[in-house]
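Here is a typical sample entry:
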Amino acid sequence: MSTCPNASVGMRIQDVDTPSLIIELDSFENNIQLMSFSLDGKNVHIRPHAKSHKCPEIAHRQIAAGAVGICCQKVSEAEAMINGGIADVLVSNEVVGKVKLERLAALAKRATVAVCTDNLENVKDLGAVAHRYGVILSVLVEVDVGGKRCGVEPGASALALAKEIIAQPNLRFGGLQGYHGSAQHIRSVAERRLAIDSAAEEIRKTLGPLEVAGIPCPRVTGAGTGSYLFEAASRVYTELQPGSYIFMDADYARNEWAGSNIPAYEQSLFLWTTVMSTPVPERAVVDAGLKALSVDSGLPLVADLAGVEYTGVSDEHGTLSLPGNSRLRLGDKIRLSRGSSLAYFRPRPGLLTPVAFRFCEMPKKNPPVVIDRGIFIHSQERTLSTCRPYRHREASEA
């Protein structure tokens, strides 16, 4: 396996090896700021979902912009975040099995950790492992608010779970999770809003019984990039979990946004790839195939080149259909837009080495220059001298 990095400090972007992920920093930072601005004056917290980036350094930037912590979907993601210095993590999912439960409890010795449940036996298992490890775990009851995935029915079933959590000496009732994932890509704003209104009503059906039982509900968490302002307006949700807003993707771009008041987040994450074959005038082939990206939400889009389409994919090849006026040549490098921020480019050792770069503003003719191995960065507004490179934190530094 090659140990040669895809890029080194000072390298021109055109010299960076491919396939590699690139983040355009202006769009990335603007997206983080837009999220903060959009929630200004609203009585909600933001806990971004890290499944979009799985990168502690990005999580630190989100927290610096006002996030109270981070969501993860798996114990392994939580471990990576905590190893990277993140102090408050919600595993917004159920954790089942002895090994995973023990890893979760071990994390609670090092950080503030919460987890979701929708099963009585799981509550008992969480209580037992927390007792063995001498920790207190915050446990949220997940309520099915319309997604028909995980979650108990609202009302009595959720109340029963909350009571069982309270009965466990090493557990603390952490509130309710009501995430409507399938609503995020409902194209119509009106239909998306109706789905979230219905989700909020399901939560209300649980808050009432909790109040009657004298059980305070510390938080109600949920929401995603496609709907989070609807949850914020419900006055039911107190914490929001959008994740894709930092990168955005082609699938979210298909949503209708006018009238939602949700800001126009920009796409900031791309895949940098090289034209490796031009066998006929109407076809080119790039070095980004199934081993470099996933196509769960459709084939990627070609950025910047009007009329050029990514039309075919195999293990190590992506096929482009070219219009008659295309001038793509062997060795040209282009950006691909992901179909979904969660249909992740596939990390493979030696393949997707992330790199950081910015465009230098002065002199004007300077090409983009790599400033740090970490994440590709592009900025039109700042000179290289004003940039602060950053890197991923090692576990030993946590």
About this structure: The first strand starts at residue 20 and ends at 23. The chain has two domains: 13-21+266-386, 26-248.
